[in-house]
């Protein structure tokens, strides 16, 4: 395949025009690495390597764009790149590139996920589910979860908010307890919180 034209779009992007209307896009590194110039002919393995390098260049640009929009874990970046058509290898390489650059900080991202969902009133189990869903490596979970405020205070605030909104009978307390368990709090934590905030006569809701 013979290169007929090397067209710069800007300082970071080039369009490579080959015979028979074939085009590829790449960056300045690929131009230098392959010594690209009009008239150059690439065949067989050399052509395949150029195609692969140009494909990875495009994936790397996608990865940089993704992380510029919002913080992500490396796992999320890999998944989104694969969803966009990147090969598993290129997705892995691009995520590793972002980690090496410091554009992805798994520990900081884990802490951010925990803060976000804790502020929504979620308990530890739900927070662990969110860390898993956001593909945060497990080695960062413990430190992020250690920053959680006392669950007793959080639960008391949630229970008091519901009690102030409307009086509750035992059936209402059962529903409140079930909703708090769904938020990720342990049953015993929930039962204790309700016991602290309602009268003894009413808090035997699980009898």
Shape: rod-shaped
The span between the termini is 79 Å
The CATH architecture term of the largest domain is: Orthogonal Bundle
The H/E string reads EEEHHHHHHHHHH
Number of helices: 10
Give the tally of structural domains: 3
Please tally the β strands and state the result.
3
Average pLDDT works out at: 90
- Indicate the CATH topology of the largest domain: Arc Repressor Mutant, subunit A
Low-confidence stretches: none
Q: Please report the first level of CATH classification, the CATH class of the largest domain.
A: Mainly Alpha
Rg for CA atoms:
27 Å
| CATH homology superfamily of the largest domain | Winged helix-like DNA-binding domain superfamily/Winged helix DNA-binding domain
Helix coverage percent of residues?
55-70%
Q: Classify the beta-strand content into a percent band.
A: 5-15%
| Biggest sheet, spatial arrangement of strands | 1-2-3
Judged by helices, strands and strand pairing, the structural class is mainly alpha
Note the main sheet: 3 strands, antiparallel
In words, what does this structure look like?
The mean pLDDT is 90. The chain has 207 residues and is mainly α. It starts with a strand and ends in a 10-residue tail after the last helix. It has helices spanning 28-33, 44-69, 74-83, 88-101, 106-119, 124-133, 141-146, 151-165, 170-182, 187-197; strands spanning 3-8, 14-18, 23-26.
């Amino acid at each position: 395949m013979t290169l007929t034209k090397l067209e710069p779009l800007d300082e970071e992007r080039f369009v490579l025009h080959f015979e028979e209307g074939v085009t590829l896009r790449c960056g300045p590194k690929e131009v230098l690495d392959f010594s690209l110039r009009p008239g150059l002919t690439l065949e067989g393995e050399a052509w395949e390597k150029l195609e692969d390098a140009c494909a990875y260049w495009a994936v790397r640009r996608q990865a940089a764009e993704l992380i510029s929009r919002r913080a992500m874990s490396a796992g999320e970046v890999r998944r989104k790149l694969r969803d966009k058509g990147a090969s598993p290898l290129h997705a892995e390489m691009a995520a590793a590139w972002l980690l090496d650059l410091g554009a992805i900080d798994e520990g900081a991202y884990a802490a951010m996920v925990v803060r976000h969902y804790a502020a929504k009133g979620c308990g530890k189990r739900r927070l662990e589910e969110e860390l898993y869903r956001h593909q945060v490596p497990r080695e960062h979970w413990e430190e992020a979860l250690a920053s959680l405020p006392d669950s007793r205070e959080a639960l008391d605030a949630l229970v008091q908010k519901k009690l102030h909104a409307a009086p509750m009978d035992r059936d209402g307390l059962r529903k409140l307890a079930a909703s708090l368990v769904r938020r990720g709090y342990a049953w015993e934590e929930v039962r204790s919180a309700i016991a602290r905030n309602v009268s003894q006569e009413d808090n035997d809701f699980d009898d």
